[in-house]
Amino acid sequence: MTDLPDPAAPGGSRVARGLGATARATRRAGSFTMRTAKRAAEAQGAGESGLSRLIQMHFFNTAGDAAVAIALAGTLFFTVPSGEARGQVALFLGLTMLPFAIVAPLIGPFLDRFAHGRRWAIGATMAIRAFLCWVLAGAVQTESTWLFPAALGVLVASKAYGVTRAAAVPRLLPQDFTLVKANGRVSMSGIVGVAVSGPIAGLASLAGPEWVLRYAFLLFVAATIAAVRLPPAVDSSAGEGDLVLRGDARGKRTGSMRIPPAVAYALRANCGPRWLSGFLIMFMAFQLRENPIDGWSTEVLTALVVGGAAAGNLLGVVAASVLKRINPAVTVTAILLVDVGVVVFAFVLYGVVALALLGLVAGLGQALAKFSLDATIQRDVPHRVQASAFARSDTTLQLAWVIGGFVGIAMPIDPPRLGLGVAVAVLAAWAGFVLTRTPRRTRPEVQTGS
Q1: Rounded distance, CA 372 to CA 325, Å?
Q2: Is 176 exposed, middle or buried (0-12, 13-18, 19+ CB in 10 A)?
Q3: Phi and psi of 244, rounded to 5°?
Q4: CB under 8 Å to 247, separation ≥6 — which residues?
Q5: CA gap 384, 449 in Å, rounded
Q6: Phi, psi (rounded to 5 degrees) for 242
Q7: Model-level pTM?
Q8: Do residues 121 and 224 lie in contact, with contact meaning Cβ atoms separated by under 8 Å?
Q9: Mean pLDDT, to the nearest integer, of 86-96?
């Protein structure tokens, strides 16, 4: 066996100096990366408005979510073997609705009561996930019955964070920033968080999923601290009014919220791209396995479609974060029509290129359409009911995704183009419905004062 170099010897000294130089270079590279990321987060007035702190908090949030997903990927909660019956996949789709079923009717209105304490409400969603990650670490290790309830709790808290964070963005909007751009900038930090945290969590998983969950615990603790340190402007309601609800002439609240026409239109338009996303994931998962295109393996074909969708989503985030002006109503309309066109293209010219392009456009459209919907809600729905509005819109979109997935599972795989033909018919019909119900060009009626 070869002895290790003696650090006192000339060769050992060179090794020690080399290791020291490597450590210093790594430290300098890390410091440079952190400074660059901080400057990017604070650019264009985001530092002065406080948006940069929200961006930094969202980084830790998505990094923690990515770690949880990696940790639970091999558990019974998330495992759906490809060879199992379609009914089990359909059951998994139904389970994805559970967090939304809780968020919409219960947590959304509850979070609206924190109109003057959003920092603590956001921090609570982080702290709850930190606690549940610690519980999950033990449950995974011992195969405890608490695995499913704790995992469901993490998903619910994650959705609650999403609606509360979205309601906080308008309070930190820098000058000359559009809401779409601000939402895109925040989402970009999330992509960076996933890119940084994913490899770390992957390495930790070699020691066991419980260590990944403990790593996620630390990330959510950091996110909790970042949430509490958000600027006081997050809790401000200056210059905002309350949405007039159905009631008497004096505007007292005696009924349910009247959804602003622009919000209703954007939500309906978003259902098309979201339905297409659920359909493609489930339909192509079975289609490409049973009917691969000549000369291409199932794994490569699936990677092309899924990779195209991921690349499209990334492009949508980048576009939303850099575009200076974007009209939400025009954007959601254009995306719905483009989705119809690209599905027609894939139906007529069924092949590798057509399917990859379909995934790319579907991912891009879904991201931009969601940013436009969020911006419309932030613009037209008053602060006191924004959390409920986001919870209900997210539930509606998830329902559209699940319905698309169910249709994709139920479709026969022969002939291969039949499923895409059905998708063309559904999207075209939905686009016609949405376009014939264009909202009046009016702003929502508001009532000033407390």
Answers
A1: 11
A2: exposed
A3: -75, 120
A4: 253, 254, 255
A5: 12
A6: -110, 140
A7: 0.65
A8: no
A9: 60
- Dmax of the chain from CA atoms? 91
Containing H/E element for 447? strand 446-447
Measure the CA–CA gap between 113 and 384, rounded to whole angstroms. 7
- Taking the CB of residue 52, how many other CB atoms lie within 10 A of it? 23
CB 325 within 8 A of CB 178: yes
Classified as helix, coil or strand, 242 is strand
Which of these, 378, 320, 365, 301, lies nearest to 338 by C-alpha position? 365
CB atoms inside a 10 Å sphere around CB 193:
23
Torsion of CA 190, 192, 195, 200, to 10 degrees: -90
Compute the distance between CA of residue 431 and CA of residue 339 in angstroms, rounded to an integer: 10
Please write the tens of the pLDDT for every residue from 340-375.
Answer: 999 999 888 888 888 889 889 998 988 889 888 988
d(CA 423, CA 404): 9
What span, in angstroms and rounded, lies between the C-alpha atoms of 163 and 261? 20
Asked whether the beta carbons of 395 and 376 are under 8 A apart, the reply is no
Instruction: Give the H or E element holding residue 137.
Output: helix 118-142
Q: Long-range contact list for 83-92, CB < 8 A, 24+ apart?
A: 86/286, 86/409, 86/410, 89/282, 89/409, 90/405, 90/406, 90/409
Do 323 and 269 touch, CB atoms closer than 8 A? Answer: no
Q: Is the pLDDT of residue 448 over 50?
A: no
**Spatial contact of 21 and 27, defined as CB atoms under 8 Å apart:** no
Rg (CA), the chain: 24
Measure the CA–CA gap between 335 and 341, rounded to whole angstroms: 10
Angstrom distance (rounded) from CA 52 to CA 157: 23
Give tens-digit pLDDT for 144-199.
777 778 887 887 788 778 877 877 787 787 877 777 778 788 888 888 888 888 88
pLDDT tens digits for range 418-437 = 888 999 999 999 999 999 87
**Does residue 296 sit in helix, strand or coil?**
coil
Point out which residues pair with 243 in neighbouring strands.
446
